[in-house]
Each structure stands twice: as C-alpha cells, then as structure tokens.
Fold this protein.
Amino acid sequence: MKRVRSLMSVALGFLLFSSIAHAEMFPSDGPPGTTVTISGEGFGEFRNTQANRVEFQGASALIQSWEPDFILVKVPLQARSGPVMVINGSAKREAGIFSVTDVRISSLNPSQAEAGSLLTIVGEHFGNTAGSRDPNTMFGVNQVIINGIRAEVRRWRPTKIEVLIPANAKTGDVEVRLASSDPLPDGSCCAPVEYAVSNAVHLTVIPPIAFDPTEGPIGSKVVLSGQGFGESRPEDGRIFFGGKPAIIAQWSDRTIVAHVPLNAQSGFLMLQREGKEREIGTFTVLDSQVSGMNPAQGPIGTLVTIKGKNFGLYSEAGSTAYAFDFLSGGNGVEIGGVPAVIHRWLDEQIDVWVPYSAKSGPVIVKRGGAIPKTDGTCCEQQEIVTLKAGTFTVVQPEIHSYSPKEAGLDEVVTITGKGFGEFLKISEATRLSLNQYAHDWKIYELGQDVSRSEVLVNGVATHIETWTDTEITIRVPRRPSYGFGNPKGFEADLSKGELILKRGSWDMLDSGECCTPKKYISIVAGPFTILQRGLPNKGYWNEKNGERSND
C-alpha cells in the first residue's frame, strides 16, 4: 500500500511538473556567477537539494530560491552554453537556452598610472556587482587583480569597473576575476570559491611623485620627491609651472629641486624627461600682499612688523631639499633704500630690525625671481618684484631732562625726552667672543654695548625699570661705587661720570648676508654723581669683627 502511494505521489509530481505551460529565463546569457531567474508554472514544491536541481549542460547550479512558479540560481563555474534543465525528482524539463560568455577586458584608462590613483577597466560581461564586501562569504567576491595584488573596487558595472591601484602594486597584468557560487556534490552550499578569469591586459605602474609646496609666490622652492628620476638631469630634463620652464637647482634619482620662475602661471606642474611628459599636479602661483605695518617710526634697532600674506620663505634660493638653506635669492626688505636686518620671515608676517644706516622713506618688501636659460640653468633673466609696505620715519633719540642728577645706590632716576623707541626684550648673543674666549681661558675685557637698548651710569649699564618712547626710569647701579677691574688694572671709584643713553643696530653686508658688527648711537644726558648712600654701614662690619675677635 505504501509503495502504491509513493508511486502515485511521484506520478502526480511528474504530471504536475510535466504540465509546465511555459518557462522564461532571464538573462539568457552571462558569465559564471550570473544570477538567473526562471519563471513559469508547475515547478513543484522544493523538497531537497538532490531532488530539486537546475543544470547548465550537466553542471549543477546553486539554487537560491525555489517556488512553484519561480526559481533563482547562480550560473556555475563549469557551465557551458546550451539548454538549461529544471529537474524535480525524476522529471526534467528545459527552461531555455543560456549562452555562457567570457569576461573580457578591452582597455585600461589610463594604461600608465601611479599607485594610489583611480584605474578604469572597460570591457564586457563583468556582471552587475562585485558581490558582498566580505571576502569570506559563501558566495565569494568578484575581484580585480593587478600583478597579483587585489585592488579596492570603487564602482562595478557590467561594462566598466573603477578601482584604486594598490600602494604596493607594480607593473604587470590586470585581470578581472568572477567568483563562482557552485554547490557541493549533494547540491547544498557551497563548494570552495573558484574564479572565472578574464584576459590579462598590461598596466604600467609608475612611481608616485610628491611635491611640496603646492602653492607659493615666484622664487618659491618646490621639491619633487619620487624615484627613478635619474642620477643626473637628462638633456631634455625640465620642470614647467603652468607651461613656463623653471630653474632646476638639483636633480638626483629621488629628488628634484626647482624654483618657481619669474613668469610662472598657475596650472599643471609638469615633469619632462627622456622625451616624455608627466603631469605631477597643480601649482598655484600666489601674489604677495601687505595688509599693514607697525610701527611707522622709531630709532635704529626698532623692530618693524609687516603683516600680509603670501610672502613665502626668506632663504630658499639654494639647491637643498630643505625649506631654509641660507640663500635669500634677492628676498629682503629695504627701509629708505637701506637693507633691513631680517629677524623673522613667515608667510603672513615679516619682522625686521631698522638698520644702523637706515634713512626715512618707503618700506619695500622684495621678492627675487628669474627665468632660466633654455637648458634649465640659471639665468636668462633676473628681477626683483617689489611691494610697498608703508613709510617709516627714522627718529633720532633726544634727552630733554633727567632727575635727579645725583643719587644713592638703587635710587630711581627718571629720563625724559622723545624718540627712545621700545625697549628690546629679545635675547641675543651680542658678543659671541665672550663665550668663545671664556672656554679657551683667554683674557677678555668686559665693556659697554652688551644690549641694543641700554643706559650707562658712569660707564656701567644699569637696570631698566620702565622704558617708553618718551620716558625711561632706571636704578643707580652699585658696581661704580664698589669698583671693578680687569687684568690691566682696577678702578676703585667711579662714582662720578656721565649718564648716557645708547641704541644699537647692524647693517647688512654688501653681499646681502647678515651682518656687520653692531654699531651704536650715544646720547649724553649730562654729568651724574653716585652718592655714598645705600652702601653697607662700615661700623656694622667692624662691630661684627670685634665680636668675633672676642670669641
């Protein structure tokens, strides 16, 4: 009885299955891994993976969904073009003809590219998607391989794929690999992932080239870093800024140093060598601008601050790969036609000292530039681009009065006048020889001129209490009353002398380098007497000595 029922069930299933009115398959072609939809009627209920199968010319497909009127499968890796059979138990029915296509690459764009750049692969039969992002899923993930290195997929379409060239990729073949989704022999999921591989197309991976900075005014030093430039500049080796050739200061296998030419324009930074041109990136040529200057007047040694933008760097005219190499290339500031001493040069601020020989007049910011010879060396033309920052008036300090004219130790003296400027607080080694001589145990005579803003009382610099442009207060020093000496002799008493105000500064050398020895202007206030007031009481010391002698 059971056997009869079983036979009746099979017969019924066969009758139902064989009663398919029609079946449609979409798509009708594609590479392995393509998801195929079979729709119709009478497919029957799904029982198990052995009884319910879909075969592509004998190769079983992985069934993802089975309904009486709808079946979803993956084209297996071993599929061949021909009829697709739907099998339910012992019943078999053709669902249509499927053409298995080969994945094919027709072109790469570009065919030469840097690691890290975007590569577009054009071809056919890539499939609609790269699949899951997880490479460990049971269905696998479609891949693009560049010389054995897997590339990161950015976009995947049936005829176009966009990937990022891996940082460690090297010149070699590009292949598109479509992951299989085949069942195990019993029809269950899933067999180890294999791949249908496209034709191989050659890609030349060129070494990346970095450059810094990406913007700046004329004369800016731009350093290109990479590899394979060559140990020396080839005959046609050039760097172009917006189509204008640059002066090449250094060319080695990994480094090229160039300077933005006088006639440079914003645009592509181009490397030319051995008959080939390569766009490295975009460089923006900036114009220097001044927004303000302070102060507008003062004595020599005044620190003048110029505000603005796009001043670039000061000393960058050399051939090293460093931003600062002690060659200004014509960069500088003039005050009344006299070169000022550069204290600090930033892209948005320049600080300069008013030189000793300064004259009242315009403050001019200078930026040097040049146009190379046809062979890329310096220079066919050299010019200085100037920018007016303002007008500076050099003031001669004047002392109108000082009081008192005699005072004891540590007492306060007030000096009034004008043009004193600001007290300079910046530390500097005014006399380097002091340090050098001391280490060599050589005799060195101390003297005046140890600071750029100082007041001398009877030949000795004193402590400054306050300093403004019109008033200075000081404390009477102790040393003149105690005496001081050197290997040449000893001065026991300098309580009488003169009160003197001093301001110091330098000049730039004729070569454009810094600097001449510091020079000073001296303004004599008048005679000054240090009174024997504030000294220790001699009786105090005698008394203490007497007590000690009685012990």
Summary: The longest helix spans residues 2-17. The chain has a mean pLDDT of 87. The CA atoms of residues 44 and 68 lie 5 Å apart.
